[in-house]
């Protein structure tokens, strides 16, 4: 591993309590790469699903992790928990509302209101 650091074992906890992982990562792995991993393995049976990495927020120890930072730079406890698994919480950004129609971009209305 880079710099002789031990890999970090991470599990991602989704909003409904289910997990993705655990999987081991090098401390030089970026938060953006972790989000890409989550997107690729997002359970298909979920009603709420992110479309891009920008729809996801990763939270560790009460802090939102920045996309361009590595696990080590984000102060994830590298090597402090021997054999332990770090749980990061995944938050999905709510769908954006189309300002013209007032309808969320992933919402299919059952009726169309009269103008």
UniProtKB/TrEMBL annotation:
Record-linked SUPFAM superfamilies: Ubiquitin-like
UniProt domain Ubiquitin-like: residue ranges: 8-76
Residues that span the membrane, as ranges: none
Subcellular location: Cell membrane
Predominant location category: membrane
Function of the molecule: May serve as docking site to facilitate the association of other proteins to the plasma membrane.
Name listed for the protein in its UniProt record: Membrane-anchored ubiquitin-fold protein
